[in-house]
Q: What sequence folds into this?
Protein backbone atom coordinates (compact mmCIF):
# COMPACT_ATOMS: atom_id res chain seq x y z
CA UNK A 1 0.00 0.00 0.00
CA UNK A 2 2.60 2.48 1.13
CA UNK A 3 4.68 1.78 -1.93
CA UNK A 4 1.76 2.24 -4.29
CA UNK A 5 0.98 5.51 -2.59
CA UNK A 6 4.54 6.59 -3.06
CA UNK A 7 4.48 5.78 -6.77
CA UNK A 8 1.11 7.34 -7.47
CA UNK A 9 0.81 10.43 -5.41
CA UNK A 10 4.25 11.04 -4.03
CA UNK A 11 7.61 10.83 -5.61
CA UNK A 12 6.48 10.57 -9.23
CA UNK A 13 4.24 13.59 -9.29
CA UNK A 14 6.44 15.65 -7.10
CA UNK A 15 10.01 14.47 -7.53
CA UNK A 16 12.42 15.96 -4.98
CA UNK A 17 14.95 18.44 -6.35
CA UNK A 18 17.86 16.07 -5.88
CA UNK A 19 16.25 13.59 -8.27
CA UNK A 20 15.68 16.28 -10.89
CA UNK A 21 19.21 17.48 -10.28
CA UNK A 22 20.67 14.11 -11.21
CA UNK A 23 18.22 13.85 -14.09
CA UNK A 24 19.83 16.85 -15.73
CA UNK A 25 23.06 14.83 -15.99
CA UNK A 26 21.47 12.30 -18.29
CA UNK A 27 22.47 14.09 -21.51
CA UNK A 28 26.10 14.10 -20.37
CA UNK A 29 26.26 10.60 -18.91
CA UNK A 30 24.54 9.08 -21.92
CA UNK A 31 27.65 9.62 -24.02
CA UNK A 32 29.63 7.15 -21.93
CA UNK A 33 27.72 3.99 -22.91
CA UNK A 34 27.58 5.20 -26.50
CA UNK A 35 31.36 5.47 -26.56
CA UNK A 36 32.11 2.26 -24.65
CA UNK A 37 29.59 0.18 -26.55
CA UNK A 38 30.72 1.33 -29.98
CA UNK A 39 34.24 0.49 -28.92
CA UNK A 40 33.11 -2.96 -27.72
CA UNK A 41 31.15 -3.62 -30.90
CA UNK A 42 34.06 -2.70 -33.16
CA UNK A 43 36.50 -4.70 -31.08
CA UNK A 44 34.18 -7.69 -31.09
CA UNK A 45 33.80 -7.63 -34.85
CA UNK A 46 37.52 -7.11 -35.31
CA UNK A 47 38.38 -10.30 -33.42
CA UNK A 48 37.03 -12.26 -36.38
CA UNK A 49 40.33 -11.40 -38.09
CA UNK A 50 43.29 -13.33 -36.71
CA UNK A 51 45.35 -10.16 -36.54
CA UNK A 52 43.02 -8.74 -33.88
CA UNK A 53 42.38 -11.98 -32.04
CA UNK A 54 44.35 -10.69 -29.06
CA UNK A 55 41.66 -8.10 -28.38
CA UNK A 56 39.45 -10.93 -27.12
CA UNK A 57 40.79 -10.80 -23.58
CA UNK A 58 39.63 -7.16 -23.25
CA UNK A 59 36.12 -7.76 -24.54
CA UNK A 60 34.45 -8.62 -21.21
CA UNK A 61 35.87 -5.45 -19.67
CA UNK A 62 34.66 -3.30 -22.56
CA UNK A 63 31.16 -4.74 -22.39
CA UNK A 64 31.06 -4.36 -18.66
CA UNK A 65 32.02 -0.69 -18.86
CA UNK A 66 29.36 -0.22 -21.51
CA UNK A 67 26.75 -2.02 -19.46
CA UNK A 68 27.40 -0.18 -16.22
CA UNK A 69 27.49 3.24 -17.84
CA UNK A 70 24.27 2.30 -19.65
CA UNK A 71 22.75 1.46 -16.28
CA UNK A 72 23.73 4.89 -14.99
CA UNK A 73 22.29 6.57 -18.08
CA UNK A 74 19.04 4.62 -17.65
CA UNK A 75 18.67 5.69 -14.02
CA UNK A 76 19.46 9.35 -14.72
CA UNK A 77 17.26 9.26 -17.79
CA UNK A 78 14.39 8.00 -15.69
CA UNK A 79 14.95 10.87 -13.24
CA UNK A 80 14.94 13.34 -16.11
CA UNK A 81 11.69 11.93 -17.48
CA UNK A 82 10.04 12.77 -14.14
CA UNK A 83 10.37 16.48 -14.91
CA UNK A 84 7.73 15.89 -17.54
CA UNK A 85 6.88 17.69 -20.74
CA UNK A 86 8.15 14.98 -23.10
CA UNK A 87 6.26 13.39 -25.94
CA UNK A 88 4.92 10.17 -24.40
CA UNK A 89 5.28 7.83 -27.38
CA UNK A 90 8.82 8.87 -28.12
CA UNK A 91 9.68 8.68 -24.44
CA UNK A 92 8.30 5.14 -24.23
CA UNK A 93 10.48 3.88 -27.09
CA UNK A 94 13.54 5.76 -25.92
CA UNK A 95 13.20 4.46 -22.37
CA UNK A 96 12.67 0.80 -23.26
CA UNK A 97 15.28 0.97 -26.01
CA UNK A 98 17.75 2.20 -23.41
CA UNK A 99 16.84 -0.55 -20.96
CA UNK A 100 17.20 -3.16 -23.70
CA UNK A 101 20.64 -1.84 -24.66
CA UNK A 102 21.71 -2.08 -21.04
CA UNK A 103 20.43 -5.66 -20.55
CA UNK A 104 21.91 -6.88 -23.84
CA UNK A 105 25.24 -5.32 -22.94
CA UNK A 106 25.33 -7.35 -19.75
CA UNK A 107 24.43 -10.33 -21.95
CA UNK A 108 27.36 -9.60 -24.24
CA UNK A 109 29.60 -9.43 -21.21
CA UNK A 110 28.46 -12.89 -20.13
CA UNK A 111 28.90 -14.57 -23.50
CA UNK A 112 32.37 -13.12 -23.78
CA UNK A 113 33.51 -14.39 -20.44
CA UNK A 114 35.37 -17.60 -21.19
CA UNK A 115 34.03 -19.40 -18.18
CA UNK A 116 30.37 -18.81 -18.88
CA UNK A 117 28.57 -21.20 -21.15
CA UNK A 118 25.07 -19.91 -20.49
CA UNK A 119 24.41 -18.52 -23.93
CA UNK A 120 25.31 -20.15 -27.17
CA UNK A 121 23.87 -17.55 -29.53
CA UNK A 122 26.41 -16.51 -32.17
CA UNK A 123 28.21 -13.54 -30.70
CA UNK A 124 28.04 -11.35 -33.78
CA UNK A 125 24.19 -11.44 -33.89
CA UNK A 126 24.05 -10.12 -30.34
CA UNK A 127 26.56 -7.48 -31.21
CA UNK A 128 24.68 -6.33 -34.28
CA UNK A 129 21.44 -6.16 -32.31
CA UNK A 130 23.05 -4.01 -29.61
CA UNK A 131 24.44 -1.75 -32.30
CA UNK A 132 21.08 -1.30 -34.00
CA UNK A 133 19.28 -0.76 -30.70
CA UNK A 134 21.86 1.80 -29.69
CA UNK A 135 21.22 3.78 -32.85
CA UNK A 136 17.49 3.54 -32.45
CA UNK A 137 17.57 4.66 -28.83
CA UNK A 138 19.91 7.52 -29.58
CA UNK A 139 17.69 8.67 -32.41
CA UNK A 140 14.59 8.60 -30.18
CA UNK A 141 16.51 10.59 -27.57
CA UNK A 142 17.42 13.16 -30.22
CA UNK A 143 13.77 13.42 -31.21
CA UNK A 144 12.84 14.02 -27.58
CA UNK A 145 15.15 16.97 -27.22
CA UNK A 146 15.06 18.52 -30.66
CA UNK A 147 11.70 17.41 -32.04
CA UNK A 148 11.11 14.68 -34.61
CA UNK A 149 11.75 16.95 -37.57
CA UNK A 150 15.14 18.18 -36.38
CA UNK A 151 17.40 15.56 -37.95
CA UNK A 152 15.98 15.81 -41.45
CA UNK A 153 15.24 19.50 -41.42
CA UNK A 154 17.96 20.22 -43.96
CA UNK A 155 17.96 16.82 -45.68
CA UNK A 156 17.40 16.70 -49.46
CA UNK A 157 13.72 16.35 -50.35
CA UNK A 158 13.92 12.71 -51.58
CA UNK A 159 15.38 11.72 -48.19
CA UNK A 160 12.67 13.66 -46.37
CA UNK A 161 9.94 12.09 -48.46
CA UNK A 162 11.29 8.60 -47.80
CA UNK A 163 10.96 9.32 -44.09
CA UNK A 164 7.37 10.40 -44.64
CA UNK A 165 8.09 14.09 -44.24
CA UNK A 166 6.76 16.73 -46.64
CA UNK A 167 9.21 18.49 -48.95
CA UNK A 168 10.94 21.48 -47.45
CA UNK A 169 8.87 24.62 -47.42
CA UNK A 170 10.46 27.34 -49.45
CA UNK A 171 11.61 29.80 -46.79
CA UNK A 172 9.74 33.07 -46.71
CA UNK A 173 11.48 35.64 -48.75
CA UNK A 174 13.32 38.25 -46.79
CA UNK A 175 11.25 41.40 -46.41
CA UNK A 176 12.79 44.24 -48.36
CA UNK A 177 10.00 46.80 -48.25
CA UNK A 178 8.00 47.58 -45.16
CA UNK A 179 4.68 47.26 -47.00
CA UNK A 180 5.22 43.55 -47.56
CA UNK A 181 5.99 42.74 -43.91
CA UNK A 182 3.48 40.33 -42.39
CA UNK A 183 2.82 40.71 -38.70
CA UNK A 184 2.75 36.99 -37.94
CA UNK A 185 4.85 35.36 -40.64
CA UNK A 186 7.66 37.94 -40.67
CA UNK A 187 7.64 39.11 -37.08
CA UNK A 188 6.01 36.87 -34.48
CA UNK A 189 6.72 33.42 -35.93
CA UNK A 190 10.44 33.99 -36.60
CA UNK A 191 10.82 35.28 -33.03
CA UNK A 192 9.27 32.10 -31.68
CA UNK A 193 11.46 30.00 -33.93
CA UNK A 194 14.67 31.58 -32.75
CA UNK A 195 13.89 31.99 -29.07
CA UNK A 196 11.15 29.60 -28.00
CA UNK A 197 10.59 26.47 -30.08
CA UNK A 198 13.68 24.71 -28.76
CA UNK A 199 11.53 23.86 -25.71
CA UNK A 200 8.04 24.19 -27.13
CA UNK A 201 8.09 21.70 -30.00
CA UNK A 202 6.45 18.36 -30.82
CA UNK A 203 9.01 16.43 -28.83
CA UNK A 204 9.29 18.74 -25.86
CA UNK A 205 5.99 20.58 -25.37
CA UNK A 206 7.09 22.25 -22.12
CA UNK A 207 4.13 23.57 -20.14
CA UNK A 208 1.91 21.75 -22.64
CA UNK A 209 2.65 24.51 -25.13
CA UNK A 210 3.65 24.24 -28.78
CA UNK A 211 4.93 27.40 -30.42
CA UNK A 212 5.65 25.96 -33.85
CA UNK A 213 2.56 27.04 -35.79
CA UNK A 214 -0.20 29.62 -35.47
CA UNK A 215 -2.84 26.99 -34.67
CA UNK A 216 -0.73 25.44 -31.91
CA UNK A 217 0.09 28.81 -30.40
CA UNK A 218 -3.58 29.67 -30.19
CA UNK A 219 -4.38 26.29 -28.62
CA UNK A 220 -2.10 27.43 -25.82
CA UNK A 221 -0.67 25.51 -22.90
CA UNK A 222 -1.58 24.43 -19.41
CA UNK A 223 -2.54 27.91 -18.18
CA UNK A 224 -5.48 28.13 -20.59
CA UNK A 225 -4.83 31.83 -21.22
CA UNK A 226 -1.60 31.63 -23.16
CA UNK A 227 -2.75 34.13 -25.78
CA UNK A 228 -5.96 36.11 -25.39
CA UNK A 229 -6.54 37.95 -28.67
CA UNK A 230 -7.05 41.63 -27.97
CA UNK A 231 -5.82 41.47 -24.39
CA UNK A 232 -2.05 41.49 -24.11
CA UNK A 233 -2.07 42.10 -20.38
CA UNK A 234 -4.11 39.00 -19.55
CA UNK A 235 -2.12 36.81 -21.95
CA UNK A 236 0.17 34.41 -20.07
CA UNK A 237 2.70 34.54 -22.89
CA UNK A 238 3.15 38.29 -22.46
CA UNK A 239 3.37 37.95 -18.70
CA UNK A 240 6.13 35.37 -19.10
CA UNK A 241 8.30 37.49 -21.36
CA UNK A 242 7.86 40.72 -19.37
CA UNK A 243 8.67 39.35 -15.89
CA UNK A 244 12.00 40.19 -14.31
CA UNK A 245 14.56 37.79 -15.74
CA UNK A 246 15.29 36.24 -12.37
CA UNK A 247 11.66 35.21 -11.87
CA UNK A 248 10.96 31.47 -11.98
CA UNK A 249 8.29 31.88 -14.64
CA UNK A 250 10.39 34.05 -16.93
CA UNK A 251 10.55 32.85 -20.55
CA UNK A 252 12.71 31.73 -22.17
CA UNK A 253 13.82 29.77 -19.12
CA UNK A 254 17.24 28.42 -18.25
CA UNK A 255 19.03 31.61 -19.19
CA UNK A 256 18.36 31.27 -22.90
CA UNK A 257 18.60 34.45 -24.98
CA UNK A 258 15.62 36.62 -23.94
CA UNK A 259 13.33 38.63 -26.20
CA UNK A 260 14.53 42.18 -26.87
CA UNK A 261 12.40 45.19 -25.87
CA UNK A 262 11.49 45.63 -29.51
CA UNK A 263 10.33 42.04 -29.78
CA UNK A 264 8.25 42.31 -26.62
CA UNK A 265 6.59 45.46 -27.96
CA UNK A 266 5.80 43.81 -31.27
CA UNK A 267 4.28 40.74 -29.62
CA UNK A 268 2.19 42.90 -27.30
CA UNK A 269 0.99 44.92 -30.25
CA UNK A 270 0.18 41.82 -32.30
CA UNK A 271 -1.97 40.45 -29.48
CA UNK A 272 -3.66 43.83 -28.97
CA UNK A 273 -4.57 43.84 -32.65
CA UNK A 274 -6.39 40.53 -32.04
CA UNK A 275 -3.47 38.15 -32.71
CA UNK A 276 -4.30 37.62 -36.40
CA UNK A 277 -2.72 34.68 -38.30
CA UNK A 278 -1.43 37.13 -40.91
CA UNK A 279 -1.86 40.68 -42.12
CA UNK A 280 0.33 43.50 -43.36
CA UNK A 281 1.87 45.52 -40.58
CA UNK A 282 1.36 48.78 -42.46
CA UNK A 283 -2.36 48.07 -42.89
CA UNK A 284 -2.93 47.05 -39.29
CA UNK A 285 -0.91 49.94 -37.95
CA UNK A 286 -3.26 52.74 -38.97
CA UNK A 287 -1.65 55.38 -36.77
CA UNK A 288 1.79 54.50 -38.13
CA UNK A 289 3.20 54.28 -34.65
CA UNK A 290 5.21 51.15 -35.41
CA UNK A 291 6.69 52.14 -38.74
CA UNK A 292 10.14 52.96 -37.47
CA UNK A 293 10.18 50.14 -34.94
CA UNK A 294 9.32 47.49 -37.52
CA UNK A 295 11.62 48.76 -40.23
CA UNK A 296 14.39 49.01 -37.70
CA UNK A 297 13.69 45.45 -36.50
CA UNK A 298 13.69 44.08 -40.03
CA UNK A 299 16.84 46.02 -40.88
CA UNK A 300 15.04 48.02 -43.57
CA UNK A 301 16.01 51.45 -42.43
CA UNK A 302 19.65 51.45 -43.39
CA UNK A 303 20.05 55.07 -44.30
CA UNK A 304 20.52 55.22 -48.05
CA UNK A 305 22.17 58.57 -47.52
CA UNK A 306 25.50 56.84 -47.04
CA UNK A 307 25.32 55.19 -50.45
CA UNK A 308 25.39 58.59 -52.06
CA UNK A 309 28.56 60.03 -53.52
CA UNK A 310 29.11 63.54 -52.25
CA UNK A 311 31.64 65.92 -53.81
CA UNK A 312 34.92 66.89 -52.20
CA UNK A 313 34.30 69.66 -49.64
CA UNK A 314 35.50 73.11 -50.57
CA UNK A 315 38.87 73.36 -48.87
CA UNK A 316 38.62 77.13 -48.30
CA UNK A 317 35.33 76.66 -46.44
CA UNK A 318 36.84 73.98 -44.25
CA UNK A 319 39.80 76.25 -43.49
CA UNK A 320 37.50 79.10 -42.50
CA UNK A 321 35.60 76.90 -40.07
CA UNK A 322 38.81 75.52 -38.58
CA UNK A 323 40.00 79.09 -38.12
CA UNK A 324 36.76 79.97 -36.35
CA UNK A 325 37.17 77.24 -33.76
CA UNK A 326 35.47 74.22 -35.34
CA UNK A 327 36.95 70.75 -35.29
CA UNK A 328 36.26 69.04 -38.61
CA UNK A 329 36.85 65.37 -39.28
CA UNK A 330 36.17 63.04 -42.16
CA UNK A 331 33.80 60.25 -41.04
CA UNK A 332 34.58 57.46 -43.44
CA UNK A 333 37.46 56.38 -45.57
CA UNK A 334 35.81 56.04 -48.94
CA UNK A 335 33.66 59.17 -49.15
CA UNK A 336 33.62 62.80 -48.08
CA UNK A 337 31.10 62.86 -45.25
CA UNK A 338 32.16 65.13 -42.43
CA UNK A 339 31.70 65.71 -38.75
CA UNK A 340 31.85 69.24 -37.34
CA UNK A 341 32.23 69.94 -33.64
CA UNK A 342 32.14 73.29 -31.89
CA UNK A 343 31.31 72.06 -28.41
CA UNK A 344 34.87 72.24 -27.08
CA UNK A 345 35.80 75.50 -28.75
CA UNK A 346 37.11 78.51 -26.82
CA UNK A 347 35.74 80.86 -29.46
CA UNK A 348 32.28 82.39 -29.62
CA UNK A 349 30.00 81.07 -32.28
CA UNK A 350 29.00 83.77 -34.77
CA UNK A 351 25.83 83.98 -36.79
CA UNK A 352 27.97 84.05 -39.91
CA UNK A 353 29.39 80.64 -39.02
CA UNK A 354 25.95 79.23 -39.80
CA UNK A 355 26.26 80.41 -43.39
CA UNK A 356 29.70 78.89 -43.67
CA UNK A 357 28.35 75.56 -42.37
CA UNK A 358 25.66 75.70 -45.03
CA UNK A 359 28.34 75.55 -47.69
CA UNK A 360 29.13 72.05 -46.44
CA UNK A 361 25.46 71.09 -46.63
CA UNK A 362 26.12 67.91 -48.59
CA UNK A 363 29.05 66.64 -46.59
CA UNK A 364 27.95 67.43 -43.03
CA UNK A 365 26.27 64.46 -41.36
CA UNK A 366 27.29 64.93 -37.73
CA UNK A 367 27.10 68.32 -36.10
CA UNK A 368 27.90 69.03 -32.48
CA UNK A 369 26.98 72.51 -31.30
CA UNK A 370 26.70 71.60 -27.62
CA UNK A 371 27.23 74.52 -25.19
CA UNK A 372 27.90 76.90 -28.05
CA UNK A 373 25.51 79.72 -27.20
CA UNK A 374 23.18 78.85 -30.06
CA UNK A 375 20.10 81.09 -30.40
CA UNK A 376 16.72 80.08 -31.78
CA UNK A 377 17.39 82.16 -34.87
CA UNK A 378 20.49 80.10 -35.72
CA UNK A 379 18.35 77.00 -36.06
CA UNK A 380 16.84 78.32 -39.25
CA UNK A 381 20.12 77.69 -41.05
CA UNK A 382 20.82 74.44 -39.24
CA UNK A 383 17.42 73.20 -40.37
CA UNK A 384 18.71 73.43 -43.95
CA UNK A 385 21.56 70.98 -43.36
CA UNK A 386 19.51 68.18 -44.85
CA UNK A 387 22.05 65.39 -44.57
CA UNK A 388 22.43 65.66 -40.81
CA UNK A 389 22.17 62.28 -39.12
CA UNK A 390 23.32 63.35 -35.68
CA UNK A 391 22.72 66.77 -34.17
CA UNK A 392 23.79 67.85 -30.71
CA UNK A 393 22.29 71.11 -29.43
CA UNK A 394 22.66 70.38 -25.73
CA UNK A 395 23.28 73.13 -23.24
CA UNK A 396 21.96 75.97 -25.42
CA UNK A 397 19.19 78.44 -24.62
CA UNK A 398 16.99 77.26 -27.45
CA UNK A 399 13.20 76.95 -27.18
CA UNK A 400 10.23 75.54 -29.07
CA UNK A 401 10.40 78.53 -31.44
CA UNK A 402 13.70 77.37 -32.80
CA UNK A 403 12.72 73.69 -32.86
CA UNK A 404 10.21 74.12 -35.63
CA UNK A 405 13.01 74.96 -38.07
CA UNK A 406 14.35 71.43 -37.68
CA UNK A 407 11.34 69.68 -39.19
CA UNK A 408 13.00 69.21 -42.59
CA UNK A 409 15.86 67.10 -41.21
CA UNK A 410 14.58 63.83 -42.59
CA UNK A 411 17.83 61.97 -42.15
CA UNK A 412 18.18 62.81 -38.50
CA UNK A 413 18.57 59.71 -36.30
CA UNK A 414 19.82 61.27 -33.09
CA UNK A 415 18.89 64.64 -31.61
CA UNK A 416 20.37 65.91 -28.38
CA UNK A 417 18.33 68.58 -26.59
CA UNK A 418 19.74 67.92 -23.14
CA UNK A 419 19.74 70.99 -20.94
CA UNK A 420 17.86 73.25 -23.37
CA UNK A 421 14.66 75.25 -22.84
CA UNK A 422 12.52 73.23 -25.25
CA UNK A 423 9.18 71.86 -24.00
CA UNK A 424 5.97 70.71 -25.69
CA UNK A 425 7.35 71.68 -29.09
CA UNK A 426 9.02 68.26 -29.40
CA UNK A 427 5.55 66.76 -29.90
CA UNK A 428 5.22 68.71 -33.12
CA UNK A 429 8.78 68.13 -34.28
CA UNK A 430 9.14 64.37 -33.80
CA UNK A 431 6.44 63.35 -36.33
CA UNK A 432 8.46 65.06 -39.07
CA UNK A 433 11.70 63.30 -38.20
CA UNK A 434 10.81 59.92 -39.66
CA UNK A 435 14.23 58.37 -39.10
CA UNK A 436 14.66 59.57 -35.55
CA UNK A 437 15.78 56.78 -33.21
CA UNK A 438 17.09 58.62 -30.21
CA UNK A 439 16.23 61.90 -28.54
CA UNK A 440 17.86 63.36 -25.42
CA UNK A 441 15.49 65.46 -23.33
CA UNK A 442 16.97 65.27 -19.86
CA UNK A 443 16.99 68.58 -17.97
CA UNK A 444 15.00 70.33 -20.65
CA UNK A 445 11.59 71.85 -19.95
CA UNK A 446 9.76 68.89 -21.38
CA UNK A 447 7.26 67.60 -18.82
CA UNK A 448 6.76 64.02 -17.67
CA UNK A 449 3.33 64.04 -19.37
CA UNK A 450 4.87 64.97 -22.72
CA UNK A 451 7.40 62.17 -22.33
CA UNK A 452 4.62 59.67 -21.61
CA UNK A 453 2.75 60.87 -24.65
CA UNK A 454 5.86 60.54 -26.84
CA UNK A 455 6.55 57.06 -25.50
CA UNK A 456 3.03 55.95 -26.33
CA UNK A 457 3.05 57.40 -29.81
CA UNK A 458 6.58 56.30 -30.70
CA UNK A 459 7.35 53.04 -28.95
CA UNK A 460 10.40 52.53 -31.14
CA UNK A 461 12.00 55.82 -30.15
CA UNK A 462 14.64 55.82 -27.44
CA UNK A 463 14.01 58.77 -25.16
CA UNK A 464 16.72 59.76 -22.73
CA UNK A 465 14.88 61.69 -20.06
CA UNK A 466 16.17 60.78 -16.68
CA UNK A 467 19.26 58.95 -15.72
CA UNK A 468 18.52 55.34 -14.82
C1 LIG B 1 14.83 26.20 -22.07
C2 LIG B 1 13.49 25.79 -22.34
C3 LIG B 1 12.45 26.84 -22.64
C4 LIG B 1 12.51 27.86 -23.57
C5 LIG B 1 13.65 28.22 -24.50
C6 LIG B 1 11.23 28.51 -23.53
N1 LIG B 1 10.42 27.90 -22.61
FE1 LIG B 1 8.49 28.39 -22.18
N2 LIG B 1 8.38 26.88 -20.83
C7 LIG B 1 9.42 26.05 -20.47
C8 LIG B 1 9.00 25.17 -19.41
C9 LIG B 1 9.85 24.09 -18.75
C10 LIG B 1 7.66 25.51 -19.11
C11 LIG B 1 6.76 24.86 -18.07
C12 LIG B 1 7.11 25.30 -16.70
C13 LIG B 1 6.53 26.64 -16.41
O1 LIG B 1 5.32 26.79 -16.54
O2 LIG B 1 7.30 27.57 -16.07
C14 LIG B 1 7.30 26.60 -20.00
C15 LIG B 1 6.08 27.21 -20.02
C16 LIG B 1 5.75 28.28 -20.85
C17 LIG B 1 4.47 28.95 -20.86
C18 LIG B 1 3.29 28.60 -20.02
C19 LIG B 1 2.40 27.70 -20.81
C20 LIG B 1 0.96 28.00 -20.54
O3 LIG B 1 0.35 28.76 -21.29
O4 LIG B 1 0.47 27.49 -19.56
C21 LIG B 1 4.53 29.93 -21.79
C22 LIG B 1 3.43 30.90 -22.18
C23 LIG B 1 5.85 29.89 -22.36
N3 LIG B 1 6.57 28.87 -21.79
C24 LIG B 1 6.28 30.76 -23.35
C25 LIG B 1 7.56 30.74 -23.84
C26 LIG B 1 8.04 31.71 -24.81
C27 LIG B 1 7.21 32.84 -25.41
C28 LIG B 1 9.33 31.39 -25.07
C29 LIG B 1 10.29 32.14 -25.97
C30 LIG B 1 10.56 33.49 -25.59
C31 LIG B 1 9.66 30.23 -24.28
N4 LIG B 1 8.57 29.86 -23.55
C32 LIG B 1 10.90 29.61 -24.31
C33 LIG B 1 10.67 26.00 -21.07
C34 LIG B 1 11.13 26.88 -22.05
A:
Amino acid sequence: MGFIFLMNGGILDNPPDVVLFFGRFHPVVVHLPIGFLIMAILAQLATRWPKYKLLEIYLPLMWLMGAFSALLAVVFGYFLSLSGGYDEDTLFWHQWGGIAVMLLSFGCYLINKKSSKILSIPKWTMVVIVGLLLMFTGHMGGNLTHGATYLLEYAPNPVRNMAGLPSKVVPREKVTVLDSADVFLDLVLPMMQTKCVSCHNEGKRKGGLLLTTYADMMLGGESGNTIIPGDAIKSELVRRITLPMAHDDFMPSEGKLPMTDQEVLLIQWWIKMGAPPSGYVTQLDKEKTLTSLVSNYLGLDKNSLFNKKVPLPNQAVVETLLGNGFVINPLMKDNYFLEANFSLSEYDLKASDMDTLLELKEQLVWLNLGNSNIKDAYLEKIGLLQNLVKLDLSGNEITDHGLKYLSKLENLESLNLYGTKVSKGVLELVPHLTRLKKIYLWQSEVSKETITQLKEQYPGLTIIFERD
